[in-house]
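Fold this sequence, please.
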Amino acid sequence: MAAAQQLMQLSGDEEDNDCKSKNKGNPDGEEEELEQNQSEITSAKIEEIFGREEEEEEEKQLRPRKRRYRSLVHIYMTTEPVNVKKVRC
């Protein structure tokens, strides 16, 4: 979700720069209001695209990673030691 917000902010930076260059004569209060409106619009777009984030459901869906490899202990237990006499260099 944070990555999506960053992408939306980065994509909106060009638009923000254009708006700020046009509105240089605005007092600080109006700029803050514009930034707040942009933030609300960005949040609304993110929720529209990805859906509302619900932490409770995410916690339930988290499960441990599936092991892709066997542990070394398991490998050592299942293999037989190499006989040095049979191995020739």
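Residues 28-50 form the longest helix (23 residues). Residues 16 and 22 are 10 Å apart (CA to CA).
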